[in-house]
Queue: 2 jobs
Job 1
Amino acid sequence: MQEVAYLDWNNSMEILNKAYETSLFVLIIGPKGTGKTSLVRDFAKNKNIDLESINFSLRTRESHLIGTKTLSNGTVSFDEGLLTKSMREGNILYLDEINSAEADVLLRLDEALDDRRQIALKESTGEVVRAKDNWFVVATINPLTHSGTKELPPQVLSRFPVRIRLEYPPENIELEIVKKHVSGHESEIMQAIKLANTLRQAAAVEELFYSPSLRETIAFGKLLDKGMSAKEAAVFVFGNVYTQWGNIEYQKVSDIITSMFGS
Ligand SMILES: Nc1ncnc2c1ncn2[C@@H]1O[C@H](COP(=O)(O)OP(=O)(O)OP(=O)(O)O)[C@@H](O)[C@H]1O
Ligand SMILES: [Mg+2]
């Protein structure tokens, strides 16, 4: 898929640059689909530095970060994990959804992130790996309302002293972003953005279970590019998902869609 350049609508790139130049690690906080991953990818691309990404979940183990011993033809070797590798190479480490990691994994990460910037490979030779000077770490967390997320322990939080907030953008900016991904249909896309914002606001006050992101408004535009009508695209992209929470939930959203896009 073609990479779309990040539209830097709230100066996040400049903050990332300043943090990079001062070796201050960055935490990006924001709900799903607000451009966190795209921002960091584009930052690494602009800087022409490799990006190592770890997507945390409850199943992420220390070995994913540090590495694992492997045995082949009677020889034991050590396959370095992404943390070890990025420290050695001095590139950018992207820790996605760091607040879904288990406590033991965070503890190990914390060892590397503190001011000594080093890690002892106790699972292999005991060698101490020191991070190169230009090693840089960016982590993301979803707000605590997001299911499956936990509070990040304060000591881990304090390793990321620069915090960027990414929220859903204002309407006109969201339109500019969607237009980067699709080719036309400006007025229908604006309608879809208004619909998305209505649903987001309802979800924020817990009147609905789901809040659509920029992924949905972009998907809507793409379906229109393929010749689908706005009403139909709204049903497929925004409406049908609410069936998961039952017919009443679905009907609420369906009525909003009909009022905005006709029946
Ligand atoms: N400022 C922007 N400029 C260009 N595209 C954007 C921007 N913000 C979001 N997008 C697009 O929106 C979609 C979602 O963005 P992305 O995956 O970066 O969000 P995220 O915050 O990392 O989401 P998640 O929390 O689910 O991982 C992508 O297709 C991305 O290209
Ligand atoms: Mg992401």
Note: The first strand starts at residue 26 and ends at 29.
Job 2
Amino acid sequence: MHPLSERIKKEFLPFVMKPGRYVGNELNVIKKEPEGKLKFALIYPDIYENGMSYLGLQILYHIINQRPNSLCERVFLPWPDAEEILKNNSIPLFSLESHTPLKEFDVLGFSLTYELNYTGVLNILSLSGMPLFSQERKEDFPLVIAGGFSVFNPEPMADFFDLFVIGDAEEVIHQVLDSIEKGKKENLKKRELLVELSRISGVYVPSFYEPKYDANNRFTGVWRKIPEAPEKIIAQTVSELKPEYYPQAPLVPFIETTHDRLTLEIMRGCGQACRFCEATSIYRPKREKGIEQILKEADCGLASTGYEEISLLSLSSTDYKNLPELVQRLQKKFYPKRVSIALPSLRPGSFSMEIAKTITQTKKTGLTFAPEAGTQRLRDVIRKNITEENLLSSVEIAYSSGWNLIKLYFMIGLPTETDEDLKGIADLVGKVFKLGKTFGPGKSVNVTISPFTPKPYTPFQWEKQEKINEIERRISLLKDLLDFRNLKVSYRDPLVSFLEGVLGRGDRKLSKVIHSAWKNGAKLDAWIEFFNYAFWRNAFEENQIDPEEYLQIRDLEQSLPWDHLDKGLSKDFLKRERERAFRLQKVEEEKELADEKSPEYFPQPEKKEDELYGRKKKKVTSIPTSTVARSKVRLRWSKGEEIRFTSHLDVLRTFERAIRRSGIPIAYSEGFHPHPRIAFGPPLPLGFVSEAEYLDIQLTEPFSNEHLSRLNKALPQGFKIMEGKTIFTKAESLSSAINAALYKVELSFSGIEIQEKIEYILSLRNLMVSRVSKEKLKEVDIRFDILKLENEDSTLNMLLSVGSAGYAKPQEVLIYGFGMKEKEVLSLLFRREGLLIKRQDQLLSPMEII
Ligand code: SF4
């Protein structure tokens, strides 16, 4: 660990709201010795929970760490509470694995996946003590690079980065790192190194180019400043999704993340070509993984993580060629282990009864369909290959197969949209809503409406984006039209879409605006609670830039800020597609489309009519899932210092997953959402260590010591099962039996002072403390929950009540009884040495009441 680590443990972790975001000791974490290695900080400019849900981050972490001479450590944007503590204590932002300050890395590699994370980049650089603009970072600062979805238009962020890597990173990252390693050995100056790097296909060094404007301040293109730099930057595309790109043992966070499951990429690219969709252009061509590879990845991934859910990731999962076979084989293999399967991206029209049948045993939390527009005319304009019948049929299949919630996504402000199209949205939603009613109560529909923002690399890249007041008018019209009882409709904030639109098609002038907005206070813009357009409005004004100009319709012959990047889609082709849209030409026009560079771009839609329109209602039968428990076991376990900042809820999840990884024969509850039969004792407070925690588990076979050693092998470092005993199945539960706990804490007072304070507390009749419960402050007397206090060589031993009948917290004894400050108390290391059952004068261990 870096020497800074000690300060982080003492001055930072005990005081932040969610220390699990910053600890960096997750399951399958990779920690390498830094000597002689190229140090790469992999940075996601949003908080841990979002960054850890991004598959691209796990892929790069794995690929870079596979290189013997490189190490890769992660960095995320701290939440404001943590940011304040870092600033107040002058602690620079650090990597999770070794707590190394960012300045000490060779490369800072950002994943840019969303425009509203741009100010997060500046915040991270600033918290690291680094100059924000690339021109101001001299030789001794790390190289600051970026890749990801958003760098397909890198210009708005061009002033902050030394280089961008455009396209799939899995192969090109090796060339980039090899070149940096070589440059380091040869002591190249930063500029010399950048020249070398710019020779790599897919690498864009923005300082070697400059944007130009004509006399009317019209953008005329990005031009090379040095002859060595390539004229066009060719985006990198991997031809297949090779097994070596994917980690066999992905990182498993202790804290719950946005997508807390095993993510398996089944396909990159999309077989559809909706005209508004940037993803289909950027991730083209469509590349599918073979079923055997996916099954193998599922096998390894589940064995190394213990996840209870697999998510099949792609832009449109139901377009995967053999989806029913894949899902069936996954279910056959993993359902006995109670692993469910999620399909996050379904397309009505390809969600068939066959697929619904194969995923009957998954969690049915909700199904999402995105018709995007309310009328067939507009769906033809945007080339959304869905009819009303497709949608209603898919919804019917979903409801009849046991799903209760349908989520529908629509856009407003699409090219050629009229109020008739908005009425079409209301009609379509009404039909889905009515259909749900025919299946009885409990079926619901959620609708999300987002303003359309034209995106680069799409046939609509030249279109205007509707002004905020017009979007507000359309929202207000929709609000009237969608006034159904119990229908939940959410509207994306038009100001957020406005800013996305400006940044998404912006030029290099916006770097200064982003900088000003950050200085004004913008950060975590992607979070509704922090998004404040005023910071941005002022930033535009300060830089005398009219943001509305970026939303205007663009001349088809005008240069666009991303024209110097080449994704293999000709502008002529996009123009023809645009014309077809406005001619209302239908999808059938395949001949010319097939002549385009990649025939995959517009494949013939595969129609499975017979599967789609089966309207017979299907009775959902309950699946017998219980497993009979044959033994009940009580386990005593310990929690060490390295994981003391893992919360109780996170510990529960960690044990459940360790039990899965260990393969011990755990019994499950009944029903569609079976749970392992595990019951924990009273929670250990965050930050405490313990050698005396308990849990009861039920097994389907008699317990043996072999189960114990398997479980110990599967538990992450810091957790250990100390002993296990079979108990009566009717033994009193831990939570109702345990009523006392013994804590120890070392204090800086002298033995005499401690003794005096103990005597003072024990002489009191009441010791009132303040507690916040359900957002209300209340006063509680804890005096009689202090059962015993003892001094042992400046260590205070406290026997306190726990449980629903009354409890005292050790911190309360120190704050209210010893008069210590909260900050002082939070930095102490508490140990729980016993969880006990107090019966009259007897103190028993939970192992003694079995
Ligand atoms: S189905 Fe359409 S919107 Fe969805 S990813 Fe494919 S092209 Fe884009």
Note: The first strand starts at residue 38 and ends at 44.
